[in-house]
Design a protein that fits this description.
Blueprint: H1 3-6, H2 11-31, E1 36-39, H3 41-47, E2 56-59, H4 63-69, E3 74-77, E4 82-87, E5 90-96, E6 98-100, E7 112-114, H5 117-122, E8 132-134, E9 153-155, H6 160-166, E10 168-169, H7 175-181, H8 185-196, E11 199-200, H9 202-210, H10 220-231, H11 236-245, H12 249-253, H13 274-284, H14 307-317, H15 321-340, H16 346-353, H17 366-381, H18 385-397, H19 411-416, H20 423-437, H21 444-454
Parallel strand pairs: 2-5, 10-11
Antiparallel strand pairs: 1-2, 1-8, 3-4, 4-5, 6-7, 8-9
Helix pairs in contact: 8-10, 8-11, 10-13, 13-15, 13-17, 14-15, 15-17, 16-20, 17-18, 20-21
Length: 455
């Protein structure tokens, strides 16, 4: 498969192509006299019947040796034994078997020592992520009973196969040691448990609770990346529930963990964005008051008294400007929908329903994302607000004018008519556009006449 054709291939085809490239790399290493296996997440996913997006290789070849065997190898983490090799549109990380020294920064080992497969497995985080697969060996059916069949032989030094069968997230070795090395592993345990609908083993659970406060010292960028990854997955509801159970809410979000038990996040549809999930979570925590607010006039969304909460979450998750604005906007739309929809004019309803209509950014889902939250609130409370509003919006969109038509009057039109730009322009343009949305202004001539009268 060519690199160009990869963009048009389906996920299964891409996974098979990536596997074939990785197998070829294993063969090159083996032909050169080295041990080489698939390692980590790709092994786990194959055993669960999933199609890995990426393949990693572990080998006894040093980074320099890998560079000799593969032209164009990138030494992205040579001090940790990691080299990237790209072939046929696929990038594979090839890492040398190693043992890790102390983790003084609670993120990376201070030093590493190249070692053996069994020692390499024992320094990894969780047993399900610490297995190897020899893709060139004959499969052993007895190994994978109760799991998906794989092409190759599994090498398991840490009882990862047993944990996969039991649906268990268990730290390799002593859980206290693994959590002390890198406190972010607490969130990785949550993400894997939610993604696979697994339980977290008792000692691992205790270690996470004992180290919950230590998560505050982890880079907020890393915390945010981990949280957004789990909230982007359909298992997000389970992730939030586990975070509450493990007393991780405040260390993660930076706000108190009071829970209304509505489980709004769990009721979001599978295609909801991570940012929509964050907003729903804040509402679930009752940090966002959805019963009061200021009506939306024109294009202004009033955030209300929750701006400090949104600002704190921004800092805690290291969110982008768009993501922060998106959360504030979602909360404001939900508030306006629940508090003021019945009192809004046709123009105000259309303006509200048009927020985010032509955006492509998942960080600013606008009205559509807010309605996903309202629908989740309906499921939790047994109400039917979202469907009623969505029916009203469909009627507004089919009234012959539409939700968001191009304006009949612009500032250029007013300037051409001899008016000098100033603060009054916006008010005039907004009022004329409201008239257009409500069908009171139907031509550019009428729009210009109305704007002229106002100015």
């Amino acid at each position: 498969m060519s690199e160009a054709s990869l963009t048009h291939a389906d996920p299964v085809q891409r996974a098979e192509h990536a596997r074939g490239v990785a197998v070829d790399m294993v063969r090159v290493l083996r032909d050169a006299g080295h041990i080489a296996y698939f390692a980590g997440g790709c092994v786990r996913d194959e055993l669960l019947g999933e199609h890995p997006k990426d393949y990693d290789i572990a080998t006894d070849a040093t980074p320099d040796r890998v560079g000799e065997l593969f032209d164009g190898a990138r030494f992205v983490g040579a001090s940790f034994g990691v080299v990237q090799v790209r072939r046929k549109g696929v990038t594979v990380e090839i890492a040398t078997f190693r043992t890790d020294g102390s983790y003084s920064d609670r993120r990376r080992p201070d030093e590493v020592t190249f070692s053996t497969p069994d020692e390499d497995a024992k320094r990894r985080d969780f047993t399900i992520n610490a297995m190897f697969l020899d893709p060139l060996a004959d499969a052993d059916i007895s190994q994978t009973q109760g799991l998906a069949s794989v092409r190759g032989r599994v090498i398991d030094y840490v009882d990862g196969l047993a944990c996969l069968r039991a649906g268990l997230i268990k730290a390799v070795g002593l859980a206290e040691d693994r959590l002390a090395e890198d406190h972010l592993r607490a969130l990785r345990a949550v993400r894997f448990a939610a993604r696979f609908a697994f339980s977290i083993e008792t000692n691992t659970t205790k270690a996470i609770r004992d180290h919950a406060r230590d998560l505050v010292g982890v880079s907020r960028e890393r915390v945010g990346d981990e949280v957004l990854r789990m909230l982007a997955h359909p298992g997000r509801g389970a992730a939030v529930r586990i975070i509450h159970e493990l007393d991780l809410v405040e260390p993660v979000l930076g706000v108190a963990g009071t829970d209304s038990q509505q489980e709004l996040v769990a009721h979001l549809p599978s295609d909801a964005s991570a940012i929509t999930a964050v907003a729903a979570w804040l509402i679930q925590l009752e940090h966002i008051d959805t019963t009061v607010g200021t009506p939306m006039i024109h294009s202004t969304l009033v955030v209300g008294d929750d701006h400090e909460v949104v600002a704190q979450v921004r800092e805690s998750l290291c969110l982008s400007n768009d993501a922060t604005a998106g959360i504030a906007e979602l909360c404001a739309i939900v508030r306006n929908v629940l508090s003021f929809w019945e009192r809004m004019s046709v123009a105000q309803r259309k303006r509200l329903a048009s927020v985010g209509l032509n955006r492509s950014s998942p960080d600013m889902p606008g009205f559509a994302g807010a309605m996903q939250i309202v629908a989740a609130m309906d499921k939790a409370a047994g109400t039917d607000v979202a469907s009623q509003i969505e029916t009203a919006v469909r009627l507004l969109a089919s009234d012959g004018v539409g939700l968001s038509p191009d304006p009949l009057l612009t500032g250029d039109h007013l300037v051409a008519a001899g008016f000098v730009p100033g603060p009054a322009f916006k008010r005039a343009l907004d009022e004329v556009y409201d008239g257009q949305l409500e069908g009171r202004v139907t031509s550019q001539q009428e729009a210009l006449a109305m704007g002229s009268r106002m100015l």
